[in-house]
Write a structure and sequence with these properties.
Blueprint: H1 19-27, H2 35-45, E1 51-60, E2 63-71, E3 81-86, H3 93-105, E4 115-119, H4 124-129, H5 151-160, E5 167-175, H6 178-191, E6 206-210, H7 216-226, E7 240-241, E8 244-245, E9 251-254, H8 256-259, E10 270-276, H9 285-305
């Protein structure tokens, strides 16, 4: 006999959250790590080799967060722009540290060929709380549109508005974790007053392509590079990954712009979202970061070879 999942501890099943429920949810969030120590200190160390700029600022109660980008020092209009984003969901750790590791180890290899723009931690409040949402219980990765309600997303939209049609490649670094199934999807269902439907978490790395403008060869080039570092997620018994049909090995598709996802923020012909699985017994945190780095390098290499 199948046991129904227990109701989420906040709210009334079937009823969307109001201000009281959101306040209760916020009261349960605790700071578990430091954006200043883990991210800003690393960004500061990169200032000797790259241009570092503050593109926005978030103020949540007594807490204040500068939003930082790392740019190529020799920015030229005749070079293509490549965009790397991480930490859109703050709990997805390798997205943040993989982006920083790429800049430290490999960004200089592309300095004479691209204008590189990296936003390593789009959601610092959520990074500190190891959470998906911002303090208003809003998912920034559904808010990358002109009318989006997340300040994290709005700041990046403003930054990229002048570059939207100049970006050659955008890779957005994410993770799919066991807590997607145990905490974040149940919380989403409760927030929206909908029933929670349990699913499965893919064991391995996969990518999310753009359903409206797919780039299958580009996606496979990234998959092949990452496979040298970690395993690729197989489809489940229904031929799906995380509830979506697997259209190619290790690849699913979403309508990026329609859903307000970060990877759809520009008109880049080459764009993808990585999904690392850090809870697999087959990987270490170092492998997770290295997977993100391998994906970024492969994505840039392919885009430059096929521009």
């Amino acid at each position: 006999m199948t046991t129904a999942p227990a109701p989420y501890p906040i709210g009334t099943p079937g009823l969307p959250w109001g201000d009281e429920e959101r306040a209760e949810w916020l009261s349960r969030q605790t700071r578990q790590r430091s954006y200043a120590s883990d991210v800003l200190s690393v960004v500061d160390r990169l200032r000797s080799r790259f241009d570092v700029e503050e593109y926005g600022h978030l103020d949540y109660g007594s807490e204040s967060y500068p939003l930082m980008t790392i740019r190529s020092r020799e920015w030229r209009d005749d070079r293509p722009v490549v965009l790397v984003t991480g930490g859109v969901h703050g709990y997805e750790t390798s997205g943040v540290h993989g982006a920083l590791q790429f800049v430290d180890q490999y960004a200089a290899d592309y300095a004479d060929r691209v204008n590189l723009l990296v936003a390593p931690c789009v959601s610092p409040w959520a990074y500190e709380r190891i959470h998906r949402w911002n303090p208003n219980a809003v998912d920034p990765n559904r808010s990358f549109r002109d009318d989006g309600s997340a300040g994290e997303s709005a700041a990046l939209v403003r930054l990229l508005a002048p570059l939207r049609d100049r970006v050659l490649m955008h890779i957005d670094l994410h993770e799919t974790t066991d807590t997607d199934e145990t905490e974040f999807r149940p919380a989403l269902a409760a927030r929206d007053g909908k029933p929670f439907e349990p699913g499965g978490i893919p064991d391995g790395f996969y990518l999310v392509d753009d359903m409206e403008k797919p780039s299958p060869e580009f996606q496979q080039a990234v998959i092949e590079a990452v496979e040298r570092v970690t395993h690729i997620a197989p489809a489940d018994d229904s031929g799906e990954l995380f509830g979506s049909p697997m259209v190619a090995r290790g690849v699913i598709q979403y309508p990026l712009k329609q859903m307000g996802l970060c990877a759809g923020i520009t008109d880049a012909p080459y764009r993808t979202t990585t999904e690392v699985y850090p809870d697999s017994p087959q990987v270490t945190p170092e492998q997770c970061n290295a997977s993100q780095v391998a994906a970024v390098c492969a994505a840039i290499n392919y885009a430059l070879a096929h521009r």
